[in-house]
Write a structure and sequence with these properties.
The chain is an alpha+beta fold. It contains 29 helices and 32 strands. The strands form ten sheets. It has a six-stranded mixed β-sheet. A five-stranded mixed β-sheet has the order 2-1-6-8-7, with helices on both faces. It has a five-stranded antiparallel β-sheet with strand order 27-28-24-31-32. Helix 19 (459-468) packs antiparallel against helix 20, helix 23 (592-601) crosses helix 24 and helix 23 crosses helix 26 (638-651). The longest helix has 28 residues, at 340-367. The N and C termini lie far apart (77 Å).
Length: 780
């Protein structure tokens, strides 16, 4: 095992500290000379630095077997003691790591002109600060144990595996290294008041103007404190509970709530929040006021950079002028360690970061010409908040009966699995499921994504097994259905309703990168997701699923409605391709899949099997699937798939043109834009991104359309929205007003997707006075 010593000029201002050498570094005996070192040099050049001017070294100067440095530094005491590892800062480290740490301290002390150390990787971070988790800490401006400025970031080898993270390292080098070398390393001073008097609280709240950031911390399902910041450095934490109990008298409490409620009156203050709809639930529950944000940093990030992380810590690392990760401070509180002063300070840090992030994001929104899109998403978030506060009416008797049905359905599938396996199998045990398929049945193992050598039995793996081994598909499907039913049973049937009997979800207004809503349990650990609730009709195995939707009933005197967009994604694809023939077929409501099978096979009367084949094949082809991908999915040769794709593109050249245009945008700008003006920037390598980009366009367009239709319909106060799916909305209206309300709904839903040939996708109506599970289609 060869030792790789540090190298570089002794008068260097910058030290670059990696985790450990790789194969090429060990062979040459020099740091950062391999592929990762070459990428490091490129990134340094992009920010105006020269690798040759830096001193290069490692936290561990020896290469661990398989380059797995985590095996030499971990938290498992039993393994550490058994292998004679050495405890350092709560970790168990290999003796060679301990030796390297000691040598590194001497090495750094011998470099007289060092102004900053760039730590690349987890071990580099740990060696200098005792912290772990470089993904969280990256970009932080810290001091190492010798009080030398230290900035952790991702290792170049990580960038080689995850190219989309490269801009983060560039940002860290430019804004935390180059900028500090030019302007100096000075930690900012915060002005926090975490123990204000009632006079200070009221004086602050009554005199604030302009942007203010608000944030709550909670305890036992109630607000423990409310933070307010009016600059990136100034904040107050208003405690509502402390170690001694309640902090304000009844009259003082009422005065504070009234002052909070008055903040937005006459446009005096603009409230800034991060994922504000979460905090707003507490304002409604504890203060009985509806306080909505004017600017939500999470929504702003979703509009600016769909698909990019949106946590407050990450946003602060990218937008704040000075940054050091502080979110660990809140974890002790969540673990039950109630240090109120620490939590109140943490609350102020959250507020100041949120305030500063909003200022930078606002600039980016203006520069990117996304003001109307951001405004639209903010307005939609208000509708989403009202929807989640409204909740749904769940019939307790039906819930009880449905629980019994689900337990029977699960047991039926458990018996199917046990009969096939010859013994009971715990479908929730990855090991037992892996033994069944990969040992007992002899299926080829499916590797875990990103973890070679480890097998996977997750849902995706079981679906792959079903496709590869049709004879085992019923078994895999039974396990998949068991998992789904068990999840729905615990997350929906057994989930608690609120004290008023309503079942409420937390809905995230910009849940996915395609702007599709996501739902989960509410802020008070009650309720649960309202998406993917089964209607009893859809099953891969032919076994009936329980109709969970039948438990959701209209309020007395109301009718439930369910409105779906028919073939919405397909229509957007056709309009993107400007395929005149397909447009006409869709307008005439012909069976598109039969028509597509005719084109794929060049026949006039396809069989049902050919129709199903054509449906899958065309879908994959339209979304950029290669001939090989299509061949694997539909079970034909690559040569056959290639011929059929050529035939498809000859008949529908607009699809191929759409692919080429999208690829040109990706190659030229890394950006694609839908017809509503929303964009998606890709930071990953462009190779292989085409299918993802092609899917984003119709999916995002449909998600945005359904949200616009929801807002337009809900403009009528007689209509109450209850929930939303990807391409459907569910609500209720008073039954006695049905005729007039339906006319309003139909007119409001006619929103054009602004192509040159405008696309209108009408909503299909289904209603019921019984339950969501019993809605039946009807004419408007």
């Amino acid at each position: 095992m060869l030792k790789v010593l540090g190298s570089g000029p002794q008068n260097a201002r910058i030290v670059i500290l990696g985790d450990c050498p790789g194969n090429e570094e060990e062979a040459a005996g020099k740091p950062f000379i391999g592929t990762s070192g070459q990428e490091l040099a490129r990134m340094l050049r992009e920010v105006g630095l020269n690798k040759d001017d830096c001193y290069l070294t490692y936290a561990c100067k020896y290469r661990p077997p398989g380059n797995k440095i985590d095996d030499w530094c971990h938290t498992k005491k039993s393994i550490g003691m058994r292998t004679a590892f050495i405890p350092i800062g709560g970790r168990w480290t290999h003796p060679l790591v301990d030796e390297s740490f000691k040598e590194l301290e001497t090495e750094l002390a011998a470099l007289p002109n060092v102004q900053i150390i760039i730590g690349m990787g987890n071990l580099a971070l740990f060696s200098q600060t005792g912290e772990r988790g470089v993904t969280n800490w990256r970009g932080s401006e810290m001091l190492n144990r010798q009080k030398i400025p230290f900035v952790p970031t991702l290792h170049p080898s990580t960038i080689m595996r995850n190219w989309a993270a490269r801009p983060y390292v560039i940002h860290d080098l430019k804004n935390r290294v180059v900028k500090r070398l030019e302007n100096g390393f000075e930690r900012p001073h915060w002005n926090f008041n975490i123990a204000p008097t009632i006079v200070e609280v009221l004086d602050c709240l009554n005199n604030l103007k302009g942007d203010i950031a608000l944030d709550v911390e909670t305890l036992g399902g109630h607000i423990v404190c409310l933070g307010v910041a009016w600059s990136e450095r100034d904040a107050m934490c208003i405690p509502f509970q402390d170690a001694s109990g309640v902090t304000w008298g009844h009259d003082e409490w009422k005065e504070i709530i009234a002052a909070v409620d008055n903040l937005q009156k006459n446009n005096r203050c603009w409230i800034v929040g991060q994922n504000w709809n979460y905090d707003a639930q507490y304002f409604a529950e504890d203060f009985n006021i509806r306080t909505m944000a004017d600017f939500d940093t999470l929504i702003a990030q979703s509009v600016l950079f769909p698909g990019v992380e949106r946590s407050l810590g990450f946003l602060a690392s990218m937008y704040c002028d000075w940054y050091s990760y502080w979110k660990e401070d809140g974890k002790d509180w969540n673990k039950g360690i109630k240090d109120f002063a620490k939590e109140f300070t943490y609350n102020c840090r959250d507020c100041c970061a949120t305030w500063e992030i909003a200022q930078r994001q606002r600039e980016f929104i203006l520069q990117s010409r996304l003001t109307s899109q951001f405004t639209e998403r903010m307005q939609y978030s208000y509708h989403v908040f009202d929807m989640m506060r409204r909740g749904v009416n769940r019939d307790p008797k039906r819930v009880k009966k449905m629980k019994e049905e689900m337990e029977e359905a699960i047991q039926e599938r458990v018996l199917v699995v046990a009969e096939a396996a010859g013994k009971p199998v715990n479908f929730a045990s990855p090991k037992q499921v892996a033994d069944l398929f990969f040992k007992q049945l002899g299926c080829a193992p499916i590797a875990k994504r990103g973890q070679p050598g480890k097998v996977s039995t997750d849902d995706e793996a079981l679906k792959k097994l079903s496709e590869k081994y049709p004879e085992h598909a019923p078994l895999a499907t039974a396990i998949l259905e068991c998992r789904s039913l068990s999840s729905l049973k615990s997350n929906f049937i057994e989930a608690l309703s609120d004290p008023d009997g309503r079942y409420r979800s937390s809905w995230m207004a910009t849940g996915t990168e395609t702007f599709r809503l996501t739902s989960s349990g509410n802020a008070f650990h009650r309720g649960g997701p309202l998406q993917n609730i089964t209607d009893g009709k859809h099953t891969h195995s032919g076994r009936k699923l329980p109709n969970l939707r039948s438990t959701i009933v209209p309020d007395p005197g109301y009718t439930l409605f369910n409105c779906d967009l028919e073939r919405a994604d397909l229509q957007v694809v056709v309009w993107e391709a400007d395929d005149v023939d397909m447009k006409q077929k869709l307008r005439e409501h012909v069976d598109v899949h039969t028509e597509n099978a005719k084109d794929v096979f060049n026949i006039t009367t396809p069989t049902e099997q050919q129709r199903h084949f054509g449906k899958t094949f065309v879908h994959l082809t339209n979304y950029g699937g290669s001939a090989r991908t299509c061949a694997i999915k539909v079970g034909c040769t690559v040569h056959q798939a290639d011929l059929m794709q050529r035939r498809w593109f000859e008949v529908h050249p607009g699809i191929l043109d759409w692919h080429r245009r999208t690829l040109a945008y990706l190659n030229g700008t890394r950006t694609i834009k839908n017809r509503f003006g929303y964009r998606r920037i890709y930071f990953d390598r462009v190779d292989g991104l085409l299918p993802e980009a092609l899917a984003w366009l119709p999916q995002s367009t449909v998600s945005l359309l359904i949200s616009l239709q929801q807002m337009a319909i809900e403009a009528d106060p007689r209509i109450q929205m209850l929930m939303q799916g990807h391409d459907s909305i569910v609500g209720q209206y008073r039954t006695e007003l049905e005729e007039d309300v339906l006319k309003t709904m139909k007119a409001a839903s006619m929103i054009a997707i602004p192509y040159d040939d405008p696309l209108f996708i009408p909503l299909e109506l289904a209603t019921s006075t019984d339950s969501w599970g019993m809605v039946e289609k009807r004419a408007w």
